[in-house]
Amino acid sequence: MSETEELERFSAAYGETTVERTYLSWKPGTYRYLFRPNREALRFLSTRIDGPGLPARFASTAMGALSAYPAASRLVWSFSACPVVVPAETAFDLFCIGYRTTGIDFDGERVVTFPRERADGSAAAALRREIDLRTRLPETVHTPPVLETNDAYPYLVERYLAGRELTGPVAGWDAIRPALRSLCALYSREPSTTVAMNEAQRHLETTVRERGWDDDPVVERALDLLDQLELPPSLRRCRVHGDFHVGNLLATADGVQILDWEDSKVDYAVGDFVKLFATHAANTGDTGVLEEIVRNTGTGGAIANAYASDAGPLVFERGTFPGGVVVFHILTRITRRDGPTTDYWYDALEALLEHRP
After folding, report:
1. Alpha-carbon distance 155 to 278, whole Å?
2. Are 169 and 307 contacting, i.e. CB atoms less than 8 angstroms apart?
3. What's the rounded Cα separation, in Å, for the pair 9 and 114?
4. Is the bond preceding 232 in cis, omega lying within 30 degrees of 0?
5. What pLDDT digit, counting tens, does each position of 231-272 carry?
6. Structural domains in the chain, sorted by start
7. Which of 121-144 are b and which e, b meaning 16 or more Cβ less than 10 Å from the residue's Cβ?
8. Residue 99's pLDDT band (cuts 50, 70, 90)
9. What whole-number percentage of the chain has pLDDT above 70?
10. Quick check: 328 and 200 in contact, CB under 8 A?
11. CA 77, 78, 82: angle at the middle one, nearest 5?
């Protein structure tokens, strides 16, 4: 089924009469955008263009300029007209189509998310799990309010909050910190248990052997390093966000909001903090802050201890940051798959070890 046919199916399920409207179609990178040529959609796109380097920056600047003269966007050769059947009453200005589809109604302050292909059972199941979680989150967790859900289709409607993406976890730390602190309300809910650190280490060592990682040189070095680093007496294991990084955070007038909960799982709570900086290290190749967190020095050490003062007593039973939990958590992520294979967790760990004296 094509993307526009899936949009038509969603529109029929949305509970309104439908109408055919002409959108402009554009795919500058990973995502395809269908948008109405108006100021709000063009301004939004100018801040969301994906892709590195000069072409992306040029496209972003061009979209910002077009927002002052929306009618001129119809003349841009890289935009093609695309008729789409959409809900008649909710005026969606833009659809972003990736592994799932997101539609935004700026005036109505509504964002809807639904599977890119409803026939994809795994995608629909993942969204249903997210709907179930989002409707049960503690009210104090920093995330956009849920306005409506439909478990049958499925789709999720949230309040649209205007905001900007963060450039990185260090520059944005003061804004990110309250959002991380708000997750403690989630960590305290059942299922929530305390796992003794020696028990957690034994489980890791068993997994390393069973999954075939015991001969991997990076894992071997990391396990040796783990014996030299400070570890806490225990770790909290509970429901976590599971994909906490700057790409899933939005800085708004109401503070940083946590988006995209589809990877939420039961795991070690400290993993949300580690993921924030491990993802940054893997994406940029800069492990400096991650090293400082492990060593408890410099800017990274200050950030880690600020996190520990907020969440440490709950997450690892102490108010200062034990650097060994970074290496421990990355190892647990790597060794959940049969080895040896690589991913961004592996790349982050390898880069971290290369910079260790």
Report:
1. 31
2. no
3. 11
4. no
5. 999 999 999 999 999 999 999 999 999 999 999 999 999 999
6. 3-160 (no CATH), 173-354 (3.90.1200)
7. eebbebbbbbbeebeebeeebbbb
8. confident
9. 94
10. yes
11. 95
